Amino acid sequence: MPLIRFLFSHGASSLALGVHLVLLAWLSVDSLALSSTEFAWVQTMALLPSIGLTLLSGVWVDKYGALPVLFVSQVLLTLAYGFLAWVLISGGLSLETLLIYALWVGFGNGLMQPAREKLVTDVAALSLQKKISLASVIQFSMQSCGIALAALSDSLGVSTVVLIQVGIAFLGAANTFGLHLGHTVPNQSPSMLSHVASLSAGFRALFGHAALRQLMVLIGFNGHMHMGVFIVLMPILATESYQFTSAQYGGLQFVFVLGMISAHLGLLRKSTVQYPGQGALFSLLYTAVIGYALTKSPTVTGLYVLVFCWGLVAGNSAAQCRMVLQSLSAAELKGRLMSIYQFILFGAAPVGALTTGYFIRYLSMTEILYVMSLSSVGLFVLFMFSRSLWAVEQIES
Fold it and tell me: Can you give the CATH number for the domain in which 45 is found?
């Protein structure tokens, strides 16, 4: 059954990515003891390729089909994890090799995002909400398994964990190679002018629709504040304020992902959300409350609870933003519009990571969290002056 085959590949890639999320941060902060600025650059290198490559990926998905693009991305990621394993075994871990590895993973992820999103809508005759929720439950469940595996690096050894990661990523790529959903591949290769024209059509559709424009502003804000800031602030907070071990930091990542899984399970069981834009907008207020609570120096237990709630809000917001985009996208433009969505999300995230890395020299973590909370409230109020995103209804399938 194509759905099962797709979910297997999707899950394998997600598990490998879960390992990556923990180890990249921990190798930077613990093994190499990088400064906040250096760590911000490492995280930025993992996000930067998505800025340009995601746009091309969306064009390729619409022209060639999602499966070939997904397979190439999985091969790139498998090779990147293999490179990290070789670096660790040979004792060559350094800032330079970590930057190369992060950049390599960024290229693979940049290709994967639009392809995976297009396949979600192709593999099964379910409602849009259930397709997105089911794929997300698999993604974040397997990602949490990867995080749990990475947390064992103190006992198993980092090299052993990375070798397991390579094997899992290879299985996912091999399964994708054998997956057939009836996609056809054109014989001719489109020219660069054809790529530009295709992207232009996607941008014209985006700028010509008020709700899509507002959605992209919201996505850019979420990428900057709630993704870029999070990936730099949390490891520093865990190590400097709470002196967490790698297992404890892995636990922090795990509860965040567990919150995201819980959000998607809730949507999977829930009746159809008629106005997903409203849920995405209210998530701004929920995040502001969580950010404010984090400024009060919670206990370790309180930190875990708040990070779980942050994951719950992030999962709900991401799912409902995707419902809005899928509901407003024409089938022939879906790959390109998804690539623009990912371009804005992952383009804003490195900016958030870098600004956090630099400003943490001059602002305390409490002050950065205040800025995040106040700006979240401010954007919610701003969106209340225009009801375009608020009024978007979810399509039936």
Answer: 1.20.1250.20
Report which of 103, 101, 110 is spatially closest to residue 162, judged by C-alpha positions: 101
324 burial (CB, 10 Å; 0-12 / 13-18 / 19+) is: buried
Integer Cα distance of 22 and 200 in angstroms: 37
The structural domain count of the chain equals 1
- Cβ-count burial 255-269 (b if 16+ within 10 Å, e if not): bbbbbbbbbbbebbe
5-24 in b/e burial notation, b at 16+ Cβ within 10 A? Answer: bbbbbbbbbbbbbbbbbbbb
Residue 171 domain-assigned? yes
**Residue 112 maps to a domain:** yes
pTM for the whole thing? 0.71
Residue type, 147: I
pLDDT digits (tens, 9 = 90+) for 90-148: 988 888 999 999 899 988 888 887 777 777 766 665 666 777 777 778 887 888 888 88
Q: Which residues constitute the domain of residue 86?
A: 2-177+198-383
Instruction: Render the burial of 69-90: b for 16+ CB within 10 Å, e for the rest.
Output: bbbbbbbbbbebbbbbbebbee
DSSP-assigned letter for residue 363: S
* In-domain check, residue 279: yes
* Residue 168 scores a pLDDT above 90: yes
Show the tokens assigned to 305.
């609870």
